[in-house]
Design a protein that fits this description.
The protein has about 160 residues and is α/β, with parallel strands linked by helices. The chain has 5 helices and 4 strands.
Amino acid sequence: MPITMVPGPVTDVVIEDERWRRIDLDALAPKACGAALRAADFNAGSKGIALLACSDRRITELNEQFRGIDRPTNVISWPAVKPGCEPACDDIQHLGDIAIAWETCLKESGEFGCALNDHAAHLIVHGCLHLLGFRHDSDRNAARMETLEAEALALIGLKRPY
């Protein structure tokens, strides 16, 4: 039987695009982040993660500003600690920030044949794993990240997305 609630970080949800109100992100974000951290065997304690639920236009601005890419993407993450540093140290109270884009998430959920809520959970899990330093910049790293995503989604009762 799937776990319906996974203890996780305190998650601050900022809804910038009102269309995201169709989904209960206040419930979904902590559940998805908690599942990602559990799959990665990371104890966040009370460390926080902030989620920005925005539009494609806004995420395009963020993508350009932080990655130099002038187009929308589904999710972007900003870890509070540089890769290679230990994010669990006691003086760090925030693991990082995640942004997800409405139009891209909606389009992808249709392409993948899954519920919008489920795809949003997948994007949040994906972003959360990036906060912990996981990458998909090689076949090996991508396979590891996909495995963790599938494990996290299973914890909250969702099927493997790959």
